[in-house]
Design brief:
- With 164 residues, the protein is of the alpha/beta class.
- It has a 5-stranded mixed beta sheet with strand order 3-2-1-4-5.
- Helix 2 links the parallel strand 4 and strand 5.
- The longest helix is centred in the middle third of the chain and has 20 residues.
Length: 164
């Protein structure tokens, strides 16, 4: 099963494709879709959608995982992230992908065993679990890979399989 994990953002939208084969996890492709701060907001969202749509068509994942929007005190940051997340959900819907949404706490718990793990701990575990030669950069890519790992764990869980 191939899971696509997404860390939505308007400036940097991280993505990662992780295959689960039994208990083995393999990273196939990962990176970030970046947009210019000088571009119009609608053009930034269109770029994210178009590039994500191309990646989905190229790699044909079985499922897409995305973090649920975490609302902190900075509303000016939350709105563009919410817009990028909406574009990601649209790409999933247009491509007929099943969507798995998890909170940041659930993603960290799945990857590190501790829901309040630091960013450094998540990056370390993503690097080890996927046997990567070096930590993925930027952090948004590591976060997307963590979401893909969590999504794989969810789909392989007994409870989830019996829900279907």
């Amino acid at each position: 099963m191939l899971a696509l994990g997404i860390d939505p953002g308007t400036a940097i939208c991280g993505y990662g494709f992780v295959e689960s084969n039994g208990s083995r996890l393999i990273a196939h492709e990962y990176g970030a879709i970046t947009t210019s701060a000088k571009a119009r907001p609608e053009d930034r969202l269109a770029k994210i959608y178009n590039e994500l749509d191309m990646l989905i068509k190229q790699y044909k994942p079985d499922v897409m995982g995305v973090e649920q929007l975490f609302f902190n005190r900075n509303v000016t940051t939350a709105i563009p992230v919410g817009q990028a997340r909406g574009v990601v959900l649209l790409a999933a819907a247009k491509n007929g992908l099943e969507l798995v949404e998890r909170t940041p706490l659930q993603v960290k718990q799945s990857v590190t065993g501790y829901g309040k793990a630091t960013k450094e701990q998540v990056i370390y575990m993503v690097t080890k679990l996927l046997n990567l030669p070096e930590p993925p950069k930027p952090d948004d890519v590591a976060d997307a890979l963590a979401v893909a790992i969590c999504t794989s764990h969810v789909l392989n869980s007994f409870t989830y399989r019996n829900k279907i």
